[in-house]
Design brief:
324 residues; alpha/beta; Elongation Factor Tu (Ef-tu), domain 3; Ubiquitin-like (UB roll); 3 domains; five-stranded parallel β-sheet; 7 helices; globular
């Protein structure tokens, strides 16, 4: 059930403007000790406290070398419609600032059974692949990285890739220069043991999933990650019953179950990310079925309808009874 995280303090030791919209932050443990081990594809939850008392909590991929635990690095894109977290990181966080982060968790690991790793990144979606590339340096499994972005000035960490050991395995696609990524051609040429990984904007993820399916690539060979709440703004209202108290709540269109519970103060639910990736708000389903929009549960767990993430998932039925 609900995942538990250790939270600890880190100090910002470096801030770099990677593109007009993306900053790279280097974090070291505030007590000077080594950071927890992680693998490529891992993320941490970053908690931020504003001077006015507002608290933000976002998930960010670790992009540094998993073999070096004296510091972590994360890349943060300033979102146009920021809920507060990315704006805080860009406008309030500087060298010397202290943040609270979680121990790492990995929902986007490289598959050990793959005969080839094909990595597809869009914009800020490059970050988890940077850590994975470190893991691939010494391995025998072939790999390739396809990195798409809008214009040369938006190619975050392009210089690192061009000058590093992965230059020969990396291809860049720049929209403004009319260098487009041909997903159909890429998928058509894949061997049966190759695995696809995609991270970036939702249209890119959807296109990779659809193109892979059209090419006959099994779903188990397609892996994706996106840190953004996936619950749609539309959808009929439904009733949620909190079984322990008998409280009934109406969850309106455009509202999450978590928001309805918090508004009514009917129960206390911990949720670190509010994006369906941390697992802390996982709650057992006693009656009804959920429409799952999280990235934490596996396809098998979603089909079993035993639990759901209250921060993003909604009800498939008109009435949902939860173990709260």
């Amino acid at each position: 059930m609900a995942k538990q995280y250790e939270m600890f303090k880190v100090r910002v030791t470096g801030v770099e403007q990677a593109t007009p919209q993306i900053k790279r932050f280097t974090l070291a443990r505030a007590d000077g000790g080594p950071l927890p081990a992680f693998s490529g594809g891992s993320h941490v939850i970053v908690q931020m406290q504003s001077p006015c008392g507002s608290q933000f909590s976002n998930a960010y991929s670790l992009m540094s070398d998993p073999r070096q635990l004296h510091s972590y690095q994360i890349g943060v894109r300033l979102e146009e419609q920021s809920k507060g977290g990315s704006a805080f990181m860009h406008n309030q966080v500087a060298v010397g600032s202290e943040l609270t982060i979680s121990t790492p968790n990995n929902l986007f690991a490289l598959d050990a059974d793959a005969g080839r790793h094909v990595l597809i990144a869009g914009g800020i979606g490059i970050t988890p692949f940077l850590a994975q590339l470190h893991e691939l340096e010494d391995g025998a499994t072939p790999y390739e990285l396809h990195y798409a972005f809008r214009a040369p000035e938006h190619g975050a960490f392009q210089g690192d890739l061009e000058q590093g050991p992965h230059a020969g395995n990396t291809r860049f696609y720049i929209d403004s220069l009319d260098r487009k990524l041909d997903l159909a051609a890429l998928c058509a040429g894949l061997a049966d043991d190759a695995h696809l990984y995609v991270c970036g904007p939702k249209p890119l993820i959807d296109a990779v999933i659809a193109t892979a399916a059209a090419a006959g690539i099994a779903e188990s060979r397609v892996h994706w990650e996106q840190f953004a709440a996936a619950a749609p703004a539309t959808g009929a209202a439904f009733t949620v019953v909190l079984a322990r108290s008998g409280t009934e709540l109406q969850v309106e269109e455009g509202m999450t179950i978590l928001q309805a519970i918090e508004k009514s103060k009917a129960a206390k639910v911990e949720c670190l990310c509010r994006e369906g990736v941390c697992g802390t708000c996982e709650t057992a389903i006693l009656e009804g079925e959920a429409e799952h929009f999280d990235q934490y549960l596996s396809d098998e767990e979603k089909a079993a309808q035993q639990s759901m993430m209250l921060c993003v998932s909604r009800a498939r039925s008109a009435r949902l009874v939860l173990d709260l």
